[in-house]
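S1.2 Input.
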Amino acid sequence: MPGTHGLTLTAHIRNTQSLHPEARGELSALLTQVGVAGKMISSKVNMAGLLGVLGSTGKINVQGEIVQKLDEMAEDVMQDIVGGSGLVCAMLSEERKDILEIETGGRYVIAYDPLDGSSNIDANVSIGTIFSIFRKLSPGTEVTRADTMQKGCEQVAAGYILYGSSTVFVYTAGEGVHGFTLDPSVGEYILSHPDIRLDGKCKCFSINQCNAPYWDAWVHDWIARVMERNDADKRRISGRHIGSLVADFHRNLIYGGVFAYPTDARSPKGKLRLMYEASPLAFIAEQAGGYASDGRISILDLEPEELHHRTGLIIGNRPEVELAEDCVGRASI
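S1.3 Output.
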């Protein structure tokens, strides 16, 4: 690949595509369109206070959560830009009850959370768009369950766009993880984090301790075993929990860390959505050398049972996630 100084997202995607002679350019075009949608959402997020789009709509979405005005805006942008690209045959959104089929669609299915962390919007906390891309498996134009209910291991690409102090596009197409920062002066994503790696050293531990009364015993055991590395000589693990999944994950991806939202007595099936949050981030984590599990098996091996399938999630540095699985195993003996 040519030198990376000033390399744009579009050029990076094109260069990666050139490594596959059989590629037809459709996935590259789709990733580019997701990036365009991210630019539009970023612009609106940055201007939200001035445009009067902070706060809720007063509606409740299919997840039972309050819909924010920016949630609706981000959903509309994704449908207009990505849905209108002619590259997807179906769109699966956290904000929609049902699958949106695209009559003039292409060879891909996209699942996405248009604005993760939206409950933090009014506090100006980093939020983001998470996406996952699958190939259409069935022949013809009909969209079938086989097309829309695929395991995470069948993803062809996944990523997220983080709207914070800067707008960052992070993605993988199965050949490493790369991050691009939006330069607003030229309107382009520029490569800023090539070949991101999650090494074995965990620095940040992200979990909501206020859920402790509802946790299973293994969670307490796991946390104790991680925390015991801190001693009078040195604090080796720091608690860092923003409460916006995409922001917590991005920090841990860059610095090294683990995020956990395990199942508990209040959410026995888990809180996070498999297809819009857990699977795409799990694909990214594993491509960066990390791992994601529900505590028992890899997130990427979970079979979605329905569109809004929920799951527990432990994701980040592989040793910490495997330690969690070990604690689950010990507790079941």
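S1.4 Remarks. The mean pLDDT is 90.
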